Amino acid sequence: MSPFPQLHIAIACPRRYPLDRRRVRRVVGTIMADAGVQYGELSLAVVDDAQMYQLNSRYLEHNYTTDVLSFRLDEGQHPGWLDGEVIACGDTARREAERIGWGVADELLLYFIHGCLHLVGYEDADPAQRRRMRRAECYYLGQVDPALAERHAETNRLGKRYIAQLTPPRSIR
User: Fold this and answer.
1) Fewer CB within 10 Å, N- or C-terminus of the chain?
2) How far apart are CA 172 and CA 135, in angstroms?
3) Could you tell me the maximum CA-CA distance found in the chain, to the nearest angstrom?
4) Sign for the pseudo-dihedral over CA of 32, 35, 36, 42
5) Is residue 22 part of a domain?
6) For residue 41, what is the domain's CATH number?
7) Is the separation of the CB atoms in 50 and 40 below 8 Å?
């Protein structure tokens, strides 16, 4: 059950991947609320490398696995409404979490934040867009645990001053 009653958030995650569903629902609901999303259906799923490879190949014509895919299903037709899917790769999360030095659940949380930011209009195709995306990721990770935001900033070479300056994203759309 979502803490945001008009936005239904469904989560599918095999038991082999640790995931704090309550934490995910809370931060995803906050992202959506900050973007003005009040209603809709959001499906979050964790899959393995083989499934992610198939999805990435089928929908984006990329012949490799990836960390996260997001799909906006409603095309933004109604203000305040969003139907979408975010699919995270548990195997990639496991590898990256080990490399970074935090938990698999933390890495999956980051993937869901990243995918949801895409759903509400964030892009990361160029350096300026990537900086804006990383800033928003850090902000929302910090809403869960400030240490996660610090670790993410450190991993992305954003610096400690960057964390001290974190404020809510100015414009989420």
Assistant:
1) N
2) 11
3) 41
4) negative
5) yes
6) 3.40.390.30
7) no
- 83-87, 105-109, 125-129, 167-171: range with lowest mean pLDDT: 167-171
- Mean pLDDT for the chain? 89
Three-state SS annotation for 114-144: HHHHHHCCCCCCCHHHHHHHHHHHHHHHHHH
168 CB-contact burial (10 Å; exposed 0-12 / middle 13-18 / buried 19+) = exposed
pLDDT of res. 1: 47
Contact 139, 166 (CB under 8 A): yes
- pTM (2 decimals)? 0.89
Tokens of 163: 């964390």
What's the one-letter identity of residue 144? V
Helix H or strand E segment including 107: helix 104-119
As for how many domains the chain has, the answer is: 1
Within-domain flag for 65: yes
Coil vs helix vs strand at 84: strand
pLDDT of residue 153: 85
